[in-house]
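Thread: quick sanity check before group meeting

JM: Hey all, I'm pulling together slides for Thursday and realized we never actually wrote out the predicted structure for the chain we discussed last week. Dropping the sequence here so it's in one place. If anyone has concerns about the input, flag it before I start.
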Amino acid sequence: MTDLLSGNPAALQCPAAAYHSARQKGVHFSASMNAYVVSSYEDVLRIVLDTQTFSSSNALGAPAPGPEEEMSNYLPYLLTSSEPEHAHRRSIVNRAFTPRHIAEHEPAIEAICQRLVNSLRHKDDVDFVKDIAVPLPISAIAHVLGLPDEDLPELLRWSQALVEATVGVEEFEPQRIIPPGRRLAERITRRFSDASHGVLPLIDQSGIPPADAARFVIDLLVAGNFTTTAYLSSAIHILARSPELADHLRLHPADMAGFVEETLRLENPLQGMYRKATRDCEIGGVPIPEGTRILVLFGSANHDPARWADPATFDPRRTDAANHLTFGHGAHSCLGSSLVRLQSRIILQTLLANTVQIRPAEQKISYLPNPIFRCPTAVPLRVTWTSPSPCDPIS
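JM (edit): ok, ran it. Output follows.
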């Protein structure tokens, strides 16, 4: 398990062996992670459902700064809050992220996906990460939030810097967090006065302090961006290596939902998150003292043979794949899960509809050397496009 969490390239390529090792050990203390490691589906689910016993106040792992420190204004607003504060904050924007409301954005996201795919039709070699998986999620979440397209390049750059400074680090460093956080907050604060649609007006009119309002938008922007980039990059790598499946999905696009759920189970971007015990308790028969850090391994839970038949096998027909814990569960389940599913389905269907064949240009891909955030750095593809484009006028 240490190999995976320390960014070992082989373990990042295929984490199943590391997950198996962690489950074989059961709940155990890891000195290198300074936390009890919890890896089985049953134990992970119990922890994420019991928000009273297991606090999310240090979900990212690094010690939280005091509220008087400026960098606290740029750290996650929802992710690191506990009940009942978390429930109150989430209630401000909940209705904007319900499946019904997210479905209203489908035409706009379809347009974004088609524009991205059309822009690549002159290329036989494509890097899916750079060309699609990076620009799509930032465009989609900015649209839902109500931020203008003209802000996208800077929002992406500043968000990237913030992610690199907060996810998987042992200590938050002000000199890395404050510059991009400050720029994001300043830009978002200016946009509140212009906002006429999306999530921005809900937050602006909620009555929370201005610094918290900007922090809330930063949280949603970052959370809705880079995890989706990571997931999409891993999903297309699976699809490109499965030409028969790609052909099937071209003919049966309704089956894409099953493909998305199974790849979400196998390729979750966040390997785990931290919790802190608020009282003496027990997990898997192991005593856990109050105040102890706990590393909750969602990735391992999604590979647990006690929950999934033949869990390492990719099976898009799996009927229970949607029970994965990639989005967490319960009170802290991912607010943007419907948006991730929607844009994933649309971009993959759009890409397949515009191609005859998608093949991996390289059989192995590399991943960021990050202990928590599993994200491909590039996914080179060789693409054979349809001719003419489904969207081209036919003379």
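AS: nice. Residues 207 and 213 are 9 Å apart (CA to CA). The chain is about 45% helix and 10% strand.
JM: adding both to the slides.
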